[in-house]
Amino acid sequence: MRVLGIETSCDETAAAVVENGIKILGNKVASQVDIHSRYGGVVPEVASRQHLLSIVPVLKECLRDASLTMEQIDALAVTCGPGLAGSLLVGVNFAKSIAMAAGKPLIGINHLEGHIYANWLTPGQTPRFPALALIVSGGHTDLVLMRDHGDYQLIGRTRDDAAGEAFDKAARLLNLGYPGGPVIEKAAKSGKVTLKLPKGIIPGSFDFSFSGLKTALYRLAETGQVASPNDAAASFQEAVVKILVKRTLAAAEEHGVNQILLAGGVAANSRLREKMIEDSPIPVSIPPLSLCTDNAAIIASCGYFHMVKGERSNLDLDVYPSMPF
Ligand code: KG4
Ligand code: ZN
């Protein structure tokens, strides 16, 4: 089964074709990062207008790369939440129009669930259940116990900022630019871990907290204790990575999982990837960088695993900007 995925939940316009949930035939992403970096963050109104301009060319390029026509597509999967309402609306209405015009089945996908499926698209990986997924993105930090496809239990989440949001805010504080994750990672490579930052552990739960870290960094900067932005970036990155790895491994041990799955934009962070593998006694699946950040192949893959169970969305599919996991 060939599924066409459409993703427009934030600032990336993306289309991809995936065969049987695991094989990428075409994968196109048009990033708006240069447009939004002028404002230091995503401007929702600008994002939805840009999606409108990009969606048709992105789909055409994706089909051309895959050497496929719409007739050779079996089904459509589209992100319907969580995300920016105006951005989600572009993708959902586009996918519904194609599904109706071409008479193909359609399924609406939770963007966060989609992120996990980067692990099924990773060459050489066949994740084993039960698995524990750490989803670390710009808006979410979730620990999800996955017993099978579609069988999820949220066992930990952030109480305040998401991990990606923490990177973005720290980068702004240190005047390093946008988006925060990649610029902090780059600065950290030339820095040393010199600052003492809080551990952000919430006792008795697998939840996360990153706002204390951000506040501590702010205080240090305000009182002139940040001599080197590179050292501050290295210290901040190390603190976030330690929290993520420690919580994940504690949860993995308690739930006796066979596999750890990394997912979401922050999973592109090389220090997180390295430390998770170093410290984990359990096999860790880590998708390639291009599948960690937003793309439509993850949506198509996730869509396939729902479709094979007979699940479908109707043409009254709506967007759900605050959709929980
Ligand atoms: O999953 P994603 O692409 O979009 C959302 O669904 O939110 O994640 C975006 C987030 C941003 O906060 C960005 O700063 C962070 O992922 N990110 C990183 C890295 N690359 C992207 N964080 C740390 N290190 C990176 N290399
Ligand atoms: Zn995402």
UniProtKB/TrEMBL annotation:
Coiled coil: none annotated. It comes from the Bacteria. Keywords: Acyltransferase, Cytoplasm, Iron, Metal-binding, Transferase, tRNA processing. Binds 1 Fe(2+) ion per subunit. It is found in: Cytoplasm. Substrate binds at residues 135-139, 168, 181, 185, 269. GO terms for molecular function: iron ion binding; tRNA N(6)-L-threonylcarbamoyladenine synthase activity. Its EC number is 2.3.1.234. Required for the formation of a threonylcarbamoyl group on adenosine at position 37 (t(6)A37) in tRNAs that read codons beginning with adenine. Is involved in the transfer of the threonylcarbamoyl moiety of threonylcarbamoyl-AMP (TC-AMP) to the N6 group of A37, together with TsaE and TsaB. TsaD likely plays a direct catalytic role in this reaction. This is tRNA N6-adenosine threonylcarbamoyltransferase. It comes from Dehalogenimonas etheniformans. The gene is tsaD.
